[in-house]
Amino acid sequence: MASHFPKPESFPNNLLHFDALYCEEEGFDQEFSSGFTTKDEIHSRHDLIWDDEEISTLLSREKEQCRVSYSAAILDASLKTARNEAIKWMLKVISRYGFAPTTAFLAADYYSNFITSLSFQRDKPWMSHLAAVACLSIASKLEETHVPLLSDLQVDESMFVFESKTIQRMELLVLSTHKWKMNHVTPISFFDHFSRRFSLHCEFSKSCEAILLPVISDIRFVEFPPSVIAAAAMKYVLRKLNPNNAENSENEIATVLGLNKECVDGCHKLIAEAVGGNEQLVGSKKRSFPSSPSGVIDAYFSSDNSNDSWVV
């Protein structure tokens, strides 16, 4: 959702060549070579343009947005269970409707913030699911072109079914808890910039998204800000696709984002543990990655150890 304002003179000075991801230039018909710029040419140029101001803006917004109290979330067994069940339910609904990955991250972020706030009443079992429906509804309204009716969101083994007006009241409570600042930075916010910075194919971003979608419900990731999670995911994908040339990119990512290497390594370790043997989530020449949230989640749940990684 972040807006980018690229400068024409800012071109990458360190292009990395990954066999599976490198962008090849396409030729243009001679009939368009007489001073006119084609639509494809504009898109091609955009793929090579990046601006450090994009990252500065994202990092500034990241510091300003609400963050979950990690100690409260990790130490409270009831919150861990509620979050795990709610986000797994969200992912099933997202899979059913083919929502964008950003919708999943926003909904999970809203929910995690809300259940650690004073507005959340733990003694009411129905409130957790109502909050999940409301958070998913808000996220889908921000990100999706076609949004289902509130009644249609309550699918896939919903323990409770709520009237639309009840969900709308909960939406207002969630919005007020976040002070109506819902344009959150997520790990996905960083992928496009580095795809262009390193002149990588768009499949790089999709591979990073595919790695993170199945681990959203893991409570351990609440400890890390979006920039760290993004850096760790990119590190994981780069090492899988081209381990011999990944180190320089990893170092540049950490430097540009101003991150502590040990912190990124810790998050990377959790990603490796959570993903486990699900190598089909990483794009390669020999194996294509799922291109939608539905495909990612189906691939994850179909693996031998899928459910084990979701238990808290």
Short note summarizing the structure:
The chain is an all-alpha fold and 312 residues long. Helix content is 55%, strand content 0%.
List the helices and strands and how they pair.
Layout: H1 39-46, H2 52-64, H3 70-75, H4 77-97, H5 101-115, H6 125-143, H7 150-153, H8 164-177, H9 188-197, H10 203-212, H11 226-241, H12 246-257, H13 261-275, H14 293-301
Organism: Genlisea aurea
Family: Belongs to the cyclin family. Cyclin D subfamily.
Protein name: Cyclin N-terminal domain-containing protein
Given as residue ranges, the uncertain stretches (5+ residues, pLDDT < 50) are 1-45, 283-312
Order of helices and strands: HHHHHHHHHHHHHH
What characteristic shape results from the CA principal axes?
globular
Q: Count the strands?
A: 0
Mean pLDDT: 76
Family: Belongs to the cyclin family. Cyclin D subfamily.
InterPro entries: Cyclin, Cyclin-like_dom, Cyclin-like_sf, Cyclin_C-dom, Cyclin_N
Protein name: Cyclin N-terminal domain-containing protein
Domain Cyclin C-terminal: 185-305
